[in-house]
User: Which sequence fits this backbone?
């Protein structure tokens, strides 16, 4: 089956904060927030990008919707190149790709009623016929009563704001929805509601989801495939169940073991990572995870590991588990 | 489970706020005891009254507080009704706090060395001695090159390091009670584990009690000995972490544990949820506060449930608490 979205060797750069100082000190003038990332998304499935702050997940997502320019590689949607398109041509593509932003309240205009927020996608794309009916139908899709159209964002709870954000993303029936941390900051009981809603909508409309999350417990339940990112690279990629059952990259293992179990008899994780993620301006040599890895070998310091593929499960590690 | 020698005894605490719609009863009859050197967790979702509880303990309730009753005995003294003067003696000295967002807790225009020396104003020691102590505590929280970094400002540190600075500051006075309000919520998983380990080590080292507020069940299970579950302004269940996680007796606790994806081992298409909404705390419904959303409700729930003692230290406010045992 042809993938809906392919990301092929994509690199995204930002200028370093102080370019003159960087030039004088011999540091790179750019940081590579995303460095040569490739993956493919199958239609109708859920794919998760996992990683800690600064790993490049959100930047990559923003590049897919065309909010951030790419500096190398190619993004294809439905067999058509979408990276490097002009604003004008992107508009047509943006109908098909919607984004649910991380902060639901912050991504809703405080001065617009829910009605106006939901009307906007239709007016932008000139589909104003029957707009009132469409807005009510959208609210119904996400399980909100019709009178919520008259509310302002500050009159919504966290869960309700998230539902409105989902409704807005779904307005034009996009093929792909990118959900950036859709459950972050929600209470567990409401987390489940939002995840169930996304799953119902996927079943109903066949929507493909690219989900960004650092909540591994959620990813395990909802994603078919996943990629683990570290310092802007994918270090491991594959079937979610396979990765949870047998993670190969040491960073993935550390990440999984740092996922605290809500069980008093399951005490402290065994594998640890020391310290914090290094700066993108000072990428470590060799395998970029080696300074924090307790399994690192001499070779890890000198040579970047080659990607290995084992039955659709990719990972880049010299000393895999 | 025996409760150790008391440090904090919250006894029948009720707090209400004046709002345009009427009086909002944010806390109702909350009782919670903490022993010396004990780590107690408080779990609850948004709107359960966690923040009001903390603000009551540190005597910083907002101006629209219209009713405050009950007692908060801290080392024998009652914080409820205490003069501001006396409160200031406790707050920031014997009771210290760390918050969720370390960036807003630190002053962005002062170097961390200046801030950490300034908060030692109560100590009768020389500036040099205060600086030495600052470095000592930064080293305790494993800040590399602590001495060299004293001149740096909060924005020059990563999120994890900032939270370590906040922890160092909160422990500088060697408090009796450290209140940690969601201290790991803003941190990545690998850092969360590091910070929790650090908190436990330092707690042993300094011997303080820790009140750990969190909605992350995993973090509470890892760090705490006892836990209280709050819902809509009431403590609905409390006990040892093991009893609560293994044999929860209040339906809300049971639902909350059931909803945590970390406890669902087999893959599920549909995630469990708690239907319905929080009750309106301006018009408190009669009977059990959880009744509207409770899967186990029956006629008697229209009466206020008694607090049943399941076993030593394990109490649940539910008519069915004795029946709802795990097989």
Assistant:
């Amino acid at each position: 089956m042809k993938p809906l979205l392919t990301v092929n060797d994509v690199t995204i750069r930002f200028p370093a904060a102080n370019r003159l100082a960087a030039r004088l000190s011999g540091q790179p003038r750019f940081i590579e927030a995303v460095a040569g990332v490739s993956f493919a998304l199958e239609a109708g499935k859920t794919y998760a990008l996992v990683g800690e702050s600064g790993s490049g997940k959100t930047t990559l997502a923003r590049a897919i919707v065309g909010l951030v320019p790419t500096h190398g590689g190619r993004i294809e949607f439905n067999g058509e190149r979408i990276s490097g398109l002009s604003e004008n041509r992107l508009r047509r593509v943006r109908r098909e790709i919607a984004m649910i932003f991380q902060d639901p309240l912050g991504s809703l205009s405080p001065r617009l009623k829910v009605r106006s927020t939901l009307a906007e996608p239709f007016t932008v794309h000139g589909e104003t016929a029957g707009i009132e009916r469409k807005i009510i139908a959208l609210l119904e899709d996400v399980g909100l009563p019709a009178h919520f159209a008259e509310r302002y964002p500050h009159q919504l709870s966290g869960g309700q704001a998230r539902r409105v954000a989902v409704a807005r993303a779904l307005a034009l029936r996009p093929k792909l929805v990118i959900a950036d941390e859709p459950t972050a900051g929600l209470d567990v009981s409401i987390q489940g509601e939002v995840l169930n809603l996304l799953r119902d909508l996927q079943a109903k409309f066949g929507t493909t989801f690219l989900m960004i999350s650092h909540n591994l417990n959620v990813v395990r339940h909802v994603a078919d495939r996943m990629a683990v990112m570290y310092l802007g690279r994918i270090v491991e990629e594959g079937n979610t169940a396979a990765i949870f059952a047998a993670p190969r990259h040491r960073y993935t293992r550390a990440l999984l073991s740092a996922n605290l179990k809500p069980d008093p008899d399951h005490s402290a994780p065994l594998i640890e990572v020391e310290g914090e993620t290094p700066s993108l301006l000072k990428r470590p040599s060799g395998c970029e995870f080696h300074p924090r890895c307790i399994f690192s070998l001499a070779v890890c310091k000198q040579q970047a590991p080659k990607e290995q593929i084992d039955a659709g499960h990719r990972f880049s590690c010299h000393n895999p588990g | 489970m025996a409760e150790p020698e008391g440090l904090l005894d919250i006894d029948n605490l009720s707090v209400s706020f004046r709002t345009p719609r009427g009086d909002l009863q944010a806390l109702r009859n909350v009782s919670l005891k903490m022993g010396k050197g004990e780590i107690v967790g408080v779990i609850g979702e948004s709107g359960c009254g966690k923040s009001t509880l903390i603000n009551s303990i540190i005597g910083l309730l907002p101006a629209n507080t219209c009713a405050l009753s009950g007692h908060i005995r801290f080392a024998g003294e009652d914080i409820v009704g205490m003069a501001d003067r006396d409160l200031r003696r406790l707050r920031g000295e014997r009771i210290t706090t760390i918050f969720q967002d370390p960036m807003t807790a630190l002053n962005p225009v002062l170097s961390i060395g200046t801030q950490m020396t300034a908060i030692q104003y109560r100590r009768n020691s020389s500036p040099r001695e205060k600086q030495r102590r600052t470095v000592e505590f930064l080293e305790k929280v494993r800040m590399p090159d602590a001495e060299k970094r004293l001149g740096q400002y909060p924005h020059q540190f990563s999120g994890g390091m900032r939270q370590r600075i906040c922890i160092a500051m909160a422990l500088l006075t060697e408090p009796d009670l450290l209140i940690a309000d969601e201290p790991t919520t803003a941190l990545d998983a690998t850092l969360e584990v590091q910070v929790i380990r650090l908190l436990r080590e330092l707690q042993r080292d300094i011997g303080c009690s820790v009140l750990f507020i969190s909605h992350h069940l995993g973090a509470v299970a890892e760090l705490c000995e006892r836990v209280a579950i709050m819902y809509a302004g009431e403590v609905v269940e409390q006990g040892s972490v093991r009893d609560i996680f293994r044999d929860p007796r209040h339906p809300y606790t049971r639902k909350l544990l059931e909803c945590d994806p970390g406890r669902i081992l087999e893959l599920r298409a549909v995630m469990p949820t708690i239907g319905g909404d929080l009750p309106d705390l301006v018009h408190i419904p009669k009977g059990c506060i959880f009744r509207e959303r409770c899967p186990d409700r029956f006629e008697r729930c229209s009466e206020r449930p008694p607090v049943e003692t399941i076993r030593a230290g394990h109490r649940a406010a539910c008519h069915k608490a004795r029946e709802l045992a795990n097989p």
Notes: Chain B touches chain A through 44 residues (CB under 8 Å). Chain B is about 30% helix and 25% strand. The two ends of chain B are 21 Å apart (CA to CA).
